[in-house]
């Protein structure tokens, strides 16, 4: 079976490509710059890559860019989307590539009858910011949808990019009759296959690289291997549909630091929060739908250990 992974050099996508090759798929991997070894060497050296990995050059903002990669595919995994927090021009750097890029990919999908299903990598950021209160007894689930106005007011540009992109994708998919499933993960951690540092692994690296304080924030956390596997399950299980929240645990940064201290007592870790406000409360995220994909969820502490070991091995830890 032939499938395409967009943004294949990224953190989540690299694991997805690895698992797809392991399962015998022929993988068309779209990257912006196929001649950059930092973006491709970790893919072309995967088991099965010699026989079944093909690189394609494609950019989210170039219309028609994905046509040649998608023609003849049975499945499409659209993971490409910028994930940064330090942006100067949110529209150019985040919103346009996320929204126009997603429609660009779906437009190509609509052209080819061979494509049976599209799995879109959305985010819990498109789910959890709905203005409803989040407290320890509240359970967030797939029926929530983030409110774009709230995200604009709060200047949460990355979350806005994912919310607008998912919303536009559902409208387009319904209009064109595309079978689409979305995966909505929280902060993804675990081992890195790529040689460069991605935003969610950087959140852990910052804590162990001499930060004086931890952010007063509470996020869901999930292992990258569970995220990659859930994409494949969402493609392979015929009855899979709609959205799938993927969160192993919701935890405040203080809790992440506590786990790291237990794992690595010798590490210098931040002792206090970045502000004097009460800690942002935790909440729950339903695992009911994710479990129907057969996902067991690597526990948070194991995921943190895998992340730190990988960051050390790749010499990111100073
Ligand atoms: P990475 O930064 O590792 O990967 C992002 C990928 O998007 C890269 O391959 C990048 O390509 C590609 N990309 C960005 N802009 C463009 C563009 N204009 N044209 C083509 N490709 C582009 O991030 P992750 O693996 O973490 O993220 C992958 C997906 O998962 C994203 O959709 C993200 O929103 C989503 N996600 C991530 C979470 C996390 O915690 N990591 C949580 C929830 C969702 P290039 O290599 O060329 O820069």
TrEMBL record:
Sequence ranges assigned to domain NAD-dependent epimerase/dehydratase in this UniProt record: 3-239
Family annotation (CDD domains): FR_SDR_e
Gene3D superfamilies, A to Z: NAD(P)-binding Rossmann-like Domain (3.40.50.720)
Keyword Oxidoreductase: yes
Origin: domain of life: Eukaryota
Keyword annotations from UniProtKB, A to Z: NADP, Oxidoreductase
Glycoprotein recorded as keyword: no
GO MF term list: oxidoreductase activity, acting on the CH-OH group of donors, NAD or NADP as acceptor
PANTHER family listed in its UniProt record: CINNAMOYL-COA REDUCTASE CAD2, NAD DEPENDENT EPIMERASE/DEHYDRATASE
Protein's name in the database: Phenylacetaldehyde reductase
The organism of origin for this protein: Ziziphus jujuba (Chinese jujube)
